[in-house]
Amino acid sequence: MKKLILAFLLAAAPVLGMAAGGNVQLDDANIDLTDKESLQRGAKLFMNYCLSCHSAKYQRYNRMARDLDMTEDEVKQNLMFTTDKIGDTMNIAMDPEDAAAWFGAAPPDLSVITRARGVDWVYTYLRGFEPDESRPFGVNNKVFPDVGMPHVLWKLQKDQAVEKFDSDMRDLTAFMAYVGEPIAVERKRIGTYVLIFIAIFFVLSYLLKKEYWKDVPKH
C-alpha cells in the first residue's frame, strides 16, 4: 500500500507543478533566505522595479533594515522613495482608481504573494514574459496569460545575460519570500530546538514511566 501511495505522489508531482502554473512547468526558485546579500539585492530590485505600482503594506522599512543587516541610513538613502519615515510600511502613492483605469485592475499588494502562489510560481512568472502584439502593452506571460501588467523588467532582461537575469529574479523572489514571512528563518531555528526538546522529553518520560511501573504487579 505504501509503495502504491509513493508511486502515485511521484507520478502526480509534475502534474501538480504544471497546474499551479497554468499548464506551465514551474522552475525551481532555489532561494536561500539565510543569504543576506541575496536578500539585499532583491530588496534593491523590489524598490526600483516593483514598489512604484505594488505595495508591501505589511512590511516596515526599519524591520527590513534590522533583518537584512542594513543600517537605517543605508535604507533611507538607497531604498526609500515613497516616504522619509523609517518606521513606515511599504506603501505606494498611486491611487487605486487611477491604477484600475490604466491597467484594468489595481496592482495587488505583494506582501504575501509567495505564500499565496509559491516561490516557484513567482520566479517563473518574473521570467515568463514574452512578446504578444495583441496585448495592450505588447507582452503576455506564459504563467499568467492575459495579465494586465507591463514587462517592467524588459530593459534589465535585454541588457543582461540570461544567467545574470535569472540570478536577479532569484534574488527578487527571495526578497518577496522574506517579506511574506520575515520570521521564517527564526521559526525554523526555534523549531529545531523544539523537536530536540520533545525528543529528550519523550525519552525522560519513558524512563520515568518504567521507573513508576516497575513494581506494579503484572496480571
From TrEMBL:
Q: What is this protein called?
A: Cytochrome c1
Q: Which segments constitute the Cytochrome c domain?
A: 37-180
Compartments where located: Membrane
Mind telling me which Gene3D superfamilies this protein's record contains?
Answer: Cytochrome c-like domain, Cytochrome c1, transmembrane anchor, C-terminal
Q: Which domain of life is it from?
A: Bacteria
User: How far does the signal peptide extend, from start to end residue?
Assistant: 1-19
Q: Name one Pfam family in it.
A: Cytochrom_C1
Explain how, and how many, cofactor molecules are bound. Binds 1 heme c group covalently per subunit.
Locate the transmembrane regions by residue number: 190-208
Q: What GO MF annotations does this protein's record show?
A: electron transfer activity; heme binding; metal ion binding
Q: What is the protein's major site of localization?
A: membrane
Cofactor names from the entry are: heme c
Cellular component, GO annotation: membrane
User: Does the keyword Heme feature in the UniProt annotation?
Assistant: yes
Q: Where does heme c bind?
A: 50, 53-54, 149
Which keywords describe this protein according to UniProt?
Heme, Iron, Membrane, Metal-binding, Signal, Transmembrane, Transmembrane helix
